[in-house]
Amino acid sequence: MAWLIVLLFVLILCRVPIAFALSFVSFLGIMLTDPGLLINIPRKMFNGIDSFTLVAVPLFILAGELMTQGGISKRLIKFSQTLVGHLPGGLALVVVLASMFFSALTGTAIAAAAAIGGMMIPAMNKEGYDIRFSTSLVATSATIGPIIPPSIVLILYGVIASVSIGDLFIAGVIPGLLMGIGLMIYSYFVGKKHNYRSRAERASFKEIITGAKDAILALLMPLIIIGGITSGVFTATESGVIAVLYAFIVGKFVYKELEFKALWNILLSTAKTTATIVFLIGNAALFIWFLSFNSIPNQIIDMLGGISESPFLLLLIINVILLIAGTFIDTISAVSIFTPLFLPLVLAAGIDPIHFGIIMAVNLTIGMATPPLGVCLFVTAAIGKISVPKMFKFLFPQVIILIVILFIITYIPDAILFPVHLFNG
């Protein structure tokens, strides 16, 4: 039955929608195994989406939409400029820093690429930055979005792997910061090399305080969410409700930039995105049940032989597979496919499932800024009005930096897990 996994990837390469590819492979496998089991299909699909935790997905999508429309991204960019705008490559540093702030609000890469890119790419053009550099940097910086909590990718992994969403959120902080710092160091040296110097002067302490006051309500939200989860005041799912309510109040009544007439389009966009994700998860649940019923993960372990007993080699192989897969499979789909395939292997090798969840998330989000399917690249290319291949000169060094950080995360687990142990211990 392991050949059905090969069929799944053949279907994906033939551009069959991933949800339908998963359901077809599962249906075919059940027919070949025992047609009498077909009666279980509706129940298994429903059980896969019948999860209170999954309610957090549409809530955080909605919160992200409300924040984008409510003027929060504009204030985060302005505050970032007061902090680093005067340095060499100042606007590039603003892009990365603002993406890190924005990531802590929305949990999605596409939202960060669109919101930050829409404001910063034209500004960088006016300052004489190479459009290839600015568009590629916005795309790679946006990949921090699904890593720094809250994160839709980590929520989905937590549901499929049955691990704590709160622990995943805590574990995502250090990797997200490392990714941001790596890209900021690169941007600083590019700024020095090409003499990208902002006309802005170093902000005074008073100006920094003023900028912080204007952005403080936006910056408080991730602290409220993480603080509430770790202290036990509310669950990760309930934090989504807090995020929506907070984003609406701040955008509508404090910043006064969120219009009631925009709410319909915001809700419609959220519903469409949620429906796609839920349909995919239902089919993924069927696929997971089919894998377990036929002991396919055990067959894969047997095929790998001694490699599955070596955490170092196993993680190396998984990293390579996920990096390649992330270039042509979208992140949500990849989590649904690879979590049930790889989780039994990593558990058998004694690898912490929280650690593996972060490894998977970082791997797959790097793919969002890597050709040929790097969706963030297409978002920023559209904003900058250039083709994706033109970005490659600046894009590849940035991707290499992210891969180096990925391997640090992979082979130094205590570097990311110590906050989890601190909060739980």
Automatic annotation (TrEMBL):
A Pfam family annotated for this UniProt entry: DctM
Membrane topology summary: Multi-pass membrane protein
Occurrences of domain TRAP C4-dicarboxylate transport system permease DctM subunit (ranges): 5-414
CC terms in the record's Gene Ontology section: plasma membrane
Listed GO MF terms: transmembrane transporter activity
UniProt-listed InterPro entries: DctM, TRAP_DctM
Membrane-crossing residue ranges in chain numbering: 45-63, 137-162, 168-190, 211-233, 239-255, 262-291, 311-329, 368-388, 400-423
This protein's UniProt keywords: Cell inner membrane, Cell membrane, Membrane, Transmembrane, Transmembrane helix
Localization (cell): Cell inner membrane
Protein name (database record): C4-dicarboxylate transporter DctM subunit
Organism: Cytobacillus oceanisediminis
